[in-house]
């Protein structure tokens, strides 16, 4: 049996992946900046990540998806945090957690194997939207996600 995918569907799928990576990287940049306590440049972040600035710029703008060794570099740098938890409503709309939206929020910490953290993730959703489930994507570049129904 063969799965048939139209070129249009593939293009839309790649576009949505590029947008997701772009949003994730922009949020991670802001979190990195917050941890350092002062404004940073994309050039400085590229050095921190070990990726060419021009290439990182394409990822951040949603022009290109990370490939090859850059996927590994990014996966090594990003630890799971509150930005890794998305809320999905009953209509399929996805919401990213808001940093600093409530007390007791999950910390932006790097966790090692077997370590734990506890805290809240807060979301702003439109009035009338019904939360359906949360998705925990420990690493946007690994392609693995865990899904849990919202009680």
Explained architecture:
The protein contains 4 helices and 4 strands. It has 2 domains: 7-77, 434 Repressor (Amino-terminal Domain) (Orthogonal Bundle), CATH 1.10.260; 82-149, no CATH class. Mean pLDDT is 79; it is low at 1-12. The protein has helices spanning 7-36, 42-49, 53-60, 68-77, and strands spanning 85-89, 94-96, 131-139, 144-149. A 4-stranded antiparallel β-sheet has the order 2-1-3-4, with no helix packed on it. It is α+β, with helices and mostly antiparallel strands. The protein is globular.
| CATH C-level label of the largest domain | Mainly Alpha
The helix content, as a percent range, equals 25-40%
CATH topology of the largest domain: 434 Repressor (Amino-terminal Domain)
Q: Kindly report the spatial arrangement of strands forming the biggest sheet.
A: 2-1-3-4
- In sequence order, what are the helices and strands, one letter per element? HHHHEEEE
**What average pLDDT do the residues reach?**
79
The number of domains: 2
The total count of helices amounts to 4
